[in-house]
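User: Fold both of these, please.

Assistant: Here is the first one.
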Amino acid sequence: MPLFRRGANRVTVDEAHQRTQSADAHAVLLDVREQREWKAGHAPGAVHAPLSRLAANEALPSAAQARPLVVICRSGHRSQQATELLAARGVDAVDVQGGMQAWVAAGHPVIDEHGNNGSIA
């Protein structure tokens, strides 16, 4: 049984944080932004898989395979596209409304590629 209800394909950043960052989290936060954006800043513990690679039908990173996914991008547009692609592959996935911009606005942490405070590019 999927972790996410059918038809409930969008979540808020606070729901995304709870589902992926809490002690009892079962889902993976999948960041579908491009490499430059990822390096500038991403959520701690997120897994990176750019939309361009997903659209080319590349496999998910091993840490994201066979797990429910919460998909995030900068604003929410690319994550919607990625969620549709993943759903077509049979993956249990939802996208985050407002993306990383909303994540930061809600006060959730962002780190750069070195683990320091990051920013949204």
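And the second sequence with its predicted structure:
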Amino acid sequence: MSTLASVNAVVERLWPLSGAEPWDSPGVVVGDPDQPVTHVRLAVDPVLEVVDEAVDIGADLLLVHHPLLFRGATTMAEDTTKGAVVSRLVRAGCALIAAHTNADVVETGTSRALAHQLGLVDQRPITEGATSSTGLGVTGRLPRPMSLVSFARQLGELLPPTAAGVRVAGDAERVVETVALCAGAGDSLLDHPVVGAADVYLTSDLRHHPASDARDLMLLGRGPALVDVSHWASEWLWLDTAAAQLREALHDVEVTLSDLRTDPWDFTVVQ
């Protein structure tokens, strides 16, 4: 029977911790290495409703993309969000593992999942990783050129719906073929030359000032159009890939996906 330790060994083989950013905190968060694991539940966020769902279905392990503890915690009191999550997991005997930036940089990572859904060809990472095919972000070409608005509509059909939808900066009729993308927060790559050379840059959590500057650059005839989508939605697509990899490696473990929407925004008001 698989244990938390043996499942974690598979997780580390698929998404090596050596690929994580220095500021990141992936790996085992909760659990006894010797505890049996028969059911793994996959989700993007370790939030309370996801934890309650995993506990209710009898999962032994919740494997998430986003770490629960980015910074040092001084309390696990149950009237705090982190304490409530940990306490509920411990009481139910459900372990918690996070695979974050270490799952972003691999050839089957979060950005690759999004790129494959878009049908990008000639894919390569934006940043250089351990090999020529690993690293943060992805650049590639659409199978055929299309307008920026058509590209945005295609995204809207691919991604799970969220309150904010798909936000775009650029001429709706601009022809796009080369795409740079980074699933999750990616404005740190806005100044990368590969991004600057693309027709469109797709990512999440674009802040006002970097986006405003990029928009001005467009008016000067340089730089990509911008497409900003939900952080959760851009990474949720990766769960299918992760589940398939785990099922192939863990024949005695059930692997299921959460379809709970954990994007933090509930609705928007059109002005």
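The domain at 4-103 is CATH 3.40.1390.30 (Udp-n-acetylmuramoylalanyl-d-glutamate--2,6- Diaminopimelate Ligase; Chain: A, domain 1).
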